[in-house]
Write a structure and sequence with these properties.
five-stranded antiparallel sheet, single chain, globular, mainly beta, 7% helix
Length: 104
C-alpha cells in the first residue's frame, strides 16, 4: 500500500469570497535538474488536494499519512513567475494526488 504524507495546507479564496482548503501532500521521489548547476538531483513529489474541511481540521491533519500516490501528468505548457526573483519558468506537467482506491 502506497502512502503520502500531509505536510501542510493552503487556503484559496474563491471568486465569491469563500475560502477553500487545499492539503499539501508529499510522497515518492522525482528527478529534477538544477537550473544553476545543471546537475540532476531528486526531490519529493508534491501535490495539493481540495479538502472539504475547515482550517482547524487541516492544521490537525499535518503529519498524517493517507493511502495514495502522486503522479506526474503532462499538461499544456503554462508559466509560473517566482515572486522573489521575477524569474519566469515554463512547465508542461503537474503533479496530481491519486487516492489508493482510484489507482487501479
Amino acid at each position: 500500500e502506497t502512502m503520502v504524507t500531509i505536510t501542510g495546507y493552503k487556503t484559496r479564496a474563491t471568486t465569491q469570497g469563500d475560502r477553500s482548503i487545499y492539503l499539501i501532500v508529499e510522497g515518492g521521489m522525482q528527478p529534477a535538474v538544477s537550473q544553476t548547476t545543471g546537475k540532476t538531483y531528486f526531490k519529493s513529489r508534491k501535490a495539493s488536494v481540495f479538502a472539504a474541511i475547515d482550517e482547524e481540521v487541516a492544521k490537525s491533519m499535518v503529519g498524517f499519512q493517507i493511502p495514495g500516490t502522486i503522479r506526474q501528468l503532462k499538461v499544456e505548457p503554462y508559466q509560473i513567475t517566482n515572486e522573489e526573483t521575477g524569474e519566469v519558468r515554463v512547465y508542461d506537467y503537474r503533479n496530481e494526488f491519486i487516492s489508493e482506491d482510484l489507482a487501479d
